Amino acid sequence: MTDAWKKQTKAVHSGSRRSQYGEVSEAIYLTQGFVYDTAEQAEARFVELGEDEFIYARYGNPTTRMFEERIAALEGAEDAFATASGMAAVNAALVAPLKAGDHVVAARALFGSCLYILDEILPRFGVEVTLVDGLDLSAWEAALRPDTKLVFFESVSNPTLEVIDVEAVSKLAHAVGALVVVDNVFATPVYSRTLELGADVVVYSATKHIDGQGRTLGGVILGTKEFVRKVAEPYLKHTGAAMSPFTSWIMLKGLETMELRVRAQVASAEALASALVGHPKLARVIYPGHPSHAQHALVQATTGKGGTVVSIDLAGGQEAAFRFLNALEIGIISNNLGDAKTLLTHPATTTHQRLPEEQKVELGITPGLVRISLGIEATEDLVADMLQALDKA
Ligand SMILES: *Cc1c(COP(=O)(O)O)cnc(C)c1O
């Protein structure tokens, strides 16, 4: 196991713990508890856990530990804690380091449940939250204060795919001593350089590209050993958001093929964006990997790739968007993303339905907007499917 390995090699081998049987595929340790040879051994383990020692699956489990070590190796993080869902990871990354009286600055364009934690939960416990336009560095600078303890944003926003400058925002945040927590789902672990660019903590919904096959929910928090073990773990192990060993096994297997899947998805996203830019039925094509995207230069200088999602805005509004969605033969209408199957969402009437009209306008969630999460089907088939559906829109 070496740090010099490429991500593809780490994704297959890092974190493996073989039992005495020498199994090739990782074992599922479907156990809640662990036994001790002696009372003295039990006592010692409760004082301090060694490398291969566990006491209870809410605290840790060998299969879950394999997943944590593998994803940590991929991300270039010292350590990781796996959780039952992406939101459990976001919640812990936000709540564990904060207390009443602290101030938080976050980007406004957020996944709905992330916004709920910032807008509804944290203020109830005396944490003050300021929301800013994540693209506007002067807005970040103006909002940051000496008592700002934490900064939170999605590196690429959903569903309008705005790309935030991780390096610049981290620099501003660190100048006031704030912890930088990044929800990195849309960047994907394959292309992420988020810690290297200056963020302190990275959070993933493993439900997306890591499982990547629509089976199970999961999440992970990555950062320094100090943050993961001294800040996140005490909160998580006592509040019960642990990932189940069976889910951890699915995520381990997901990591093995993630690079292949994500690379295929990105190639299709690039091809689709190129095929759709300038289409007469579209008011906008949003893809960070296309030269027409406002932050294309930033993408080229950081992750290098535009991700697995393309958003399009049909000039004919909601009716045209619905006709397009209903005419698809391969693409499926669903609100997940990062799946092997191509999934399409109409945010204005589903994921972002509850937002007030003015907030939808502010976030660019127009009636014609459709989010396309590319799957691993043949690129030509996907592009042909979108074009024939656009003809009917
Ligand atoms: C899906 C998602 C989440 C939540 O993850 P779950 O696994 O559904 O709990 C959080 N942030 C982003 C950006 C997501 O896409």
Tell me briefly what this model is.
The chain has 393 residues and is α/β, with parallel strands linked by helices.
Features:
Aspartate Aminotransferase, domain 1; alpha/beta; Aspartate Aminotransferase, domain 2; 7-stranded mixed sheet; binds pyridoxal-5'-phosphate; single chain; 2 domains
Task: Describe the overall structure.
The mean pLDDT is 96. This protein is of the alpha/beta class. The chain folds into two domains: 248 residues, Aspartate Aminotransferase, domain 2 (3-Layer(aba) Sandwich); 134 residues, Aspartate Aminotransferase, domain 1 (Alpha-Beta Complex). Helix 4 packs parallel to helix 5. It is globular. Strand 4, helix 7 and strand 5 form a beta-alpha-beta unit. The relative contact order is 0.12. The strands form two sheets. A seven-stranded mixed β-sheet has the order 1-7-6-5-4-2-3, sandwiched between helices. Strands 8-9-12-11-10 form a five-stranded mixed β-sheet. The protein binds pyridoxal-5'-phosphate. The site of pyridoxal-5'-phosphate has 16 residues, from helix 4 and helix 5.
Ordered list of secondary-structure elements with their pairings:
Elements: H1 7-13, H2 39-47, H3 62-75, E1 79-83, H4 86-95, E2 103-107, H5 112-124, E3 128-132, H6 137-143, E4 148-154, H7 166-175, E5 179-183, H8 188-191, E6 201-205, E7 219-223, H9 225-239, H10 245-276, E8 282-286, H11 296-301, E9 309-314, H12 317-327, E10 332-333, E11 343-345, H13 357-363, E12 369-373, H14 379-391
Bound molecules: pyridoxal-5'-phosphate (PLP).
